[in-house]
């Protein structure tokens, strides 16, 4: 044993950070775990001497966070499959580890930038977090999304998006991670230590001030309102699987619609795939027979409802026919006509589609021989007129699509909606905290796009989220219900984030990350034989520390 050697606690720090981050999810809701979890990850990465070590720390952190944050997975597997508890726990571990690989690559990038290009650690960490969050995953969640119950701190998402807010938080925590006992001891003696602490304390201030301004602005908005009824029939998935139950399901939906229409709503919304009967994808009128009618003689409409629509049969090379389906949403008008449907664009991996199936049809055919869900071909707004001659231009987010920033941006750019509507079936996660987590992440779409969001959810949390990210009404019940909400219809121009997305911040951070390397490169060309150039080309971090806490500067 070497005398005086320091013990490397970085793996323990990373695991503890992931634990705290995971505890920020419901039902524990330790929201301070988000910044503290990032802080501990940054502290662990500061001591990483190699890219491989950085990647390992990222994997440990994210796997631990996933095991805690997605602790609803085993119960879902045991409830809806024949796998036992041991297999369900193993699947949970594998999913958490698989989703952590992007964090491993991202944190390896962080160490590579810091150690090899001499990029400031704070910049490296923020850029790595931003890049990691841009990667695809089965369950998408972010630091900013978990902090949405504190909407004051995430209002800048309309400028830089959910991922950008997460990257700024990562920068702040990386800066805070430079504070150690030496810095605190030198507060009186060294100006750099004082500047570092001051930067850490003051950095949140402009974001808080912007948040106060934005929340005040959207709280006082006096634009037109719509009165909307959010219906759920409280249908368990296994109950829906049996065709003999379909008449009762439809009757329950109609009963709750009567309650909503009696309250004077302009539009009633049913959840994802609520209508139990299959319907042709190209249908222009609703079924008229008594058994399958959506609206009876006591209901007037209009009605926005989720359904599974059937695509025309296609003939396979082997001569067999397949019948694909869409996870759709459409509006039924009072005269019985159906609008062309919005078809879900982003299908859930493994639950609804095979990863890569859109680009490799043979792979999809291998796992879905008799036909399966296919993604929609184009975005489509659903429209209806309400009282006063106001038009509702609805951007639909189907199921977990309300957790996806990129799809939200495309809807804002292409459709210019004045209201966002989410239809979801969270019955698959009955008895778990997933519906609350789903709602929490969806709040960021309202802030990013500055549009009110209403959510009609089966066995989950139906809600109205205003454009400032406040949950104005919500209802979670295991009984059939109709929640009446009055969202604002906003026709304001697209936000900066809706127009430009993550690219500006990504380019800014990338430019900042490359600056030290470019400076050394040009310095080496101008002074190729000078001692300063040789020192600059030396890869030793002992000669060049970009961490603010390592020098007498801030």
Please render the helix and strand layout as text.
Elements: H1 10-23, H2 33-46, H3 51-69, H4 73-80, H5 85-116, H6 121-133, H7 143-146, H8 157-176, H9 181-185, H10 191-202, H11 205-219, E1 228-232, H12 237-240, H13 246-262, E2 267-269, E3 279-280, E4 303-310, E5 314-315, E6 321-322, E7 325-332, E8 342-343, H14 361-367, E9 382-386, E10 390-398, H15 405-415, E11 419-425, H16 434-449, E12 453-458, E13 462-465, E14 471-475, E15 481-485, H17 496-500, H18 503-526, H19 531-537
Parallel strand pairs: 1-2, 2-4, 3-4, 10-11, 11-12
Antiparallel strand pairs: 1-15, 4-7, 5-6, 7-8, 9-10, 12-13, 13-14
The proportion of residues in beta strands is 5-15%
Rg calculated over all Cα atoms = 26 Å
The CATH superfamily of the largest domain is known as: Carbon-nitrogen hydrolase
Q: The CATH topology of the largest domain is what?
A: Nitrilase/N-carbamoyl-D-aminoacid amidohydrolase
Distance between the terminal alpha carbons, to the nearest Å?
Answer: 37 Å
Structural class, by secondary structure, is alpha/beta
Number of domains: 2
What is the helix fraction of residues, given as a range? 40-55%
Kindly list the characteristics that best describe this protein.
554 residues; alpha/beta; Nitrilase/N-carbamoyl-D-aminoacid amidohydrolase; 2 domains; seven-stranded mixed beta sheet; six-stranded mixed beta sheet; globular; disordered C terminus
